[in-house]
Design a protein that fits this description.
The protein is of the alpha+beta class.
């Protein structure tokens, strides 16, 4: 699948969307997005329970009300703390938790969920708002999911995809996911089969080299992005 034409000169432009951990204040938007993107999902995901699950990780793509400043700062050292300062201060993260999530939830463009099972990071869903598709957000969420898997020390990443979804399969294949099996009549809405796809070890030099190249290619097309993976942890530039 060729990427849509975007910021081909790339490096000086910032992407309109950033990645951060999902918060309670996002639940209403993400639940509505899930209903639209995955109408077959029954029962719907209990996101409040998932956010409390240490074996699950959820990220959202959001459009900040102003550009996210990714310059390093020393958080909570002055009275005038920025959103960035609060976001990267572990105490501030916990103390301001829900209020911060609500303040940042102006527009959730998409989300990705990952379950961590032994040495496997299983990507359970990648959803993007219909009107914002084709802007590199789905790929950005996949990048965030792989980076989160790397951060959590997973050995491989896995997922399921509809056999008819050639666009998604093309994207996943580009990121090193290979066919590993088939789940018959996996989707309840139409009885469609799912393809199981998995990567080679994601910490290997070969995979990391490929992954960094793909991240750079995404940034060249769409602009650089800020990707916050957990409290105090962000993806390095050109990860």
């Amino acid at each position: 699948m060729s990427l849509p034409r975007g910021n081909v000169n790339g490096s000086s432009k910032a992407l309109d969307f950033a990645i951060r951990p999902m918060e309670r204040g996002d639940i209403a938007q993400v639940s509505a997005l899930e209903r639209n993107a995955f109408p077959e999902m029954q029962p719907p995901t209990l996101f409040e329970k998932e956010l409390a699950n240490s074996l699950a990780g959820y990220l959202v793509a959001w459009r900040p009300s102003r550009p996210v400043d990714d310059r390093p700062r020393t958080p909570l050292l002055s009275r005038r703390t920025t959103l960035w300062d609060r976001l990267f201060a572990p105490r501030g993260w916990r103390r301001q938790g829900e209020a911060l999530g609500q303040a940042m939830a102006q527009e959730v463009a998409g989300y990705v969920g990952v379950w961590f099972m032994t040495d496997e990071a299983h990507i359970v869903a990648v959803g993007v708002l219909d009107r914002l598709r084709g802007q590199g957000i789905g790929e950005l969420l996949l990048i965030g999911a792989v980076e989160l898997a790397l951060l959590r020390g997973s050995r491989v990443a896995t997922l399921e995809v509809r056999v008819s979804n050639q666009v998604a399969q093309s994207l996943y294949t580009r990121y090193g996911f290979k066919h590993a099996g088939r789940r018959r009549r996996y989707y309840s809405d139409n009885g469609e089969d799912a393809l199981v796809m998995t990567t080679d070890p994601i910490h290997s030099d070969e995979y990391l080299s490929m992954f960094r190249s793909l991240v750079q290619r995404h940034e060249q097309h769409w602009g650089k992005s800020v990707r916050i993976l957990s409290a105090g942890k962000r993806a390095p530039p050109g990860a």
